[in-house]
Amino acid sequence: MPSPTPNAPHARPAPNGKTAMVIGAGPAGLMAAERLAGDGYAVTIYEGMPSAGRKLLMAGKSGLNITHSEDLETFLTRYGTSRARLEPHLRKFGPDQIREWCAGLGLETFVGSSGRVFPTAMKASPLLRAWLRRLDDLGCTIHYRHYWTGWNDADQAVFKTPDGEITATADITILALGGGSWKRLGSDGKWMEILLNAGIKCNPFKPANCGFELNWTDHLIDKCAGSPVKAVTLTCGDQTVRGEFVISKTGIEGSAVYAISATLRDQWLETGVGTLTLDLCPDRTLGDVTNRLSKPRGKNSLGNHLRKTLGLDATKTALIFEVTPRETLNDPTALATAIKNLKLQIKKPRPLDEAISTAGGVAWEELDDTFQLINRPGTYCLGEMIDWEAPTGGYLLSGCLIKY
Ligand SMILES: Cc1cc2nc3c(=O)[nH]c(=O)nc-3n(C[C@H](O)[C@H](O)[C@H](O)COP(=O)(O)OP(=O)(O)OC[C@H]3O[C@@H](n4cnc5c(N)ncnc54)[C@H](O)[C@@H]3O)c2cc1C
After folding, report:
1. What sequence ranges are listed for the domain RsdA/BaiN/AoA(So)-like insert (predicted)?
2. Residue 212 has pLDDT above 80, yes or no
3. pLDDT value for 2
4. Boundary residue ending a domain (311, 327, 349)
5. What is the pLDDT of residue 82?
6. DSSP state of 41
7. In this structure, are residues 142 and 134 in contact, taking their beta carbons and an 8 Å threshold?
8. Mean per-residue pLDDT over the chain, rounded
9. pLDDT in tens, 56-105
10. Which stretches of 177-232 are DSSP H helices?
């Protein structure tokens, strides 16, 4: 990996005599602006909020996971059914190129223990500052508080601004309007209605990387809300993930739940029921767990017995008591089976607005291989507004920074 170079002013390339309008100043829009300016376009960016990259800044609050260091073949599998469409672009500008690009902005990156890549500063603000400086050097203009409301009869883009409505045209238009969650950060998803009215097929938003609601008893909420359930496996359908999650007041959330959330959400959408199977002792066989639980308990409470024989903490024990019938608790063989196959019935996903990202959006069949709308030549869609999804792990931002 090259060491960071100072963020030297970017020389303006020779103008190509053409104009580009980028709507949406999130990572996808800013990257499009940088590339177009590099190709000599006179670029104007329009952003509805008073500042750029609000969701990017929020993403940086818990450590900006900008990409992933695993081998590219594994990396590409994370994009599921959208892999075929994204792969050529991720191969042109993937994890290595993202790290080089960060270095070019003066930001060193490192690989965390899970293989995730972060800027050394962890936050997004230094990256965003350096990026906006670069765009300024490249001659890009940004208009904030310019909220796009669609196209008028003359096919001009219309913006609501504090000074009233304005219109704009350009040789090419990039729509990079984000998904449908965390509306307060700017991506309100209202663009979908505009595109649908223009005859562009969009699939409804679905929460991705989201938590789920369960019918917890008040007792469990009092005892465990906010507590992690560590080192477990979660299975839904034919997907199993290992990791940890958190018991919340309303249900479950956290990294392992997000990792399995697409499968669990789709099962719930298709059947009206969503079932998660936990293995609370994934490193022990059923036989081993049964043998340990069959040891004489003496005067120990069942909770103490579970702790001493299997090392289960108070949260895991409370979870077992929450969902296991009394007769099972009293039978070591049945209890061992329950501990290795603890069933959680979800009520529904948490609301769309809380999701880290959203599936749904502009249907792939509306876009050509350069992300241009087939029925609206000269207009392109980029980033989370397209109907693809990926787990957390830096794959979302990587999918927004791709080269088209
Ligand atoms: C809490 C949280 C943590 C996250 N952490 C990570 C992480 O660590 N790693 C990772 O890879 N991803 C992470 N993500 C996801 C990542 O931030 C998004 O996938 C990414 O920001 C999407 O980029 P985008 O440019 O497509 O859309 P956005 O970042 O949503 O940008 C869209 C822009 O368009 C503007 N806009 C929308 N509508 C209009 C309109 N009508 N007119 C004008 N402007 C408009 C919005 O104001 C916004 O600025 C996280 C998300 C959240 C919420």
Report:
1. 206-357
2. yes
3. 47
4. 349
5. 98
6. -
7. no
8. 96
9. 999 999 899 999 999 999 999 999 999 999 999 999 999 999 999 999 99
10. 191-197, 218-224
The strand pairing partners of 23, in sequence order, are 46, 175
Phi, psi angles (nearest 5°) of residue 101:
-65, -45
Compute the distance from residue 222 Cα to the ligand 1 centre, in Å: 34
Task: Give the integer Cα–Cα distance in Å for 386 and 240.
Answer: 27
pLDDT at 307: 97
Is there a domain that residue 264 lies in? yes
Atom of ligand 1 nearest to the CA of 53: 49
Mean pLDDT of 310-316: 97
**Per-residue pLDDT tens over the stretch 324-336:** 999 999 999 999 9
The span from the CA of 291 to the CA of 187, in Å, is 54
Residues 229 and 364 in one domain: no
Pairwise CA distance, residues 257 & 211, whole Å: 7
Q: Are 373 and 379 in contact (CB under 8 A)?
A: yes
- In this structure, the residues whose C-beta lies within 6 A of any atom of ligand 1 are 23-29, 46-49, 54-56, 58-59, 64-65, 147-148, 176-178, 182, 186-188, 191, 356-357, 383-384, 394, 396-397, 400
Tally of residues, the chain: 404
| pLDDT of the residue at 113 | 87
Domain boundary among 349, 372, 387: 349
- Same structural domain, 249 and 194: no
Range of the domain at 308: 212-349
